[in-house]
Amino acid sequence: MLSGLLKFILGFLLAITVLVGSGVAVALYFMNRTSIPPARPIYANDSPAIATPASKKTEAKTTSTPKAVASATPTPSANPTETPEALPPGAYKGRVTWADGVSLRAEAQQDAERVGSVAFNEQVIVLEANQDKSWVKIRTEASKQEGWLKIGNVEKVEQ
Question: Is the pTM above the cut of 0.85?
Fold first, then answer.
């Protein structure tokens, strides 16, 4: 009789130990998974090493065209220094201050279609603001892409 009761108690304690141990293991697993921040997304304009389909087409066109034979007379070359574009009236230069970069929207609304993105510290041209001054329309200097973003994600820079 005593050995049956002892077997029951030991079996019960073993079952409780297994359940508690598996519960702790599952809790630790999910805590570990949620504490790891996700990887930062890589956009096509972040690095020149990432080729977009459009740039591949232009590379194919330039490599397939025959090279002109160099003549003895030098040809006039374009001025290597670029002249800065004149800003539209009321526009100013700025930079993105949100550390993860921002999404450009088609309209001045949070649920509007996403038309692109701008990386942290990227130079932009602020073109205009909406009526309540909560969104600004910007143009990126690198890709000339335009879109709307929240006013707090960009700051004016001195030229």
Answer: no
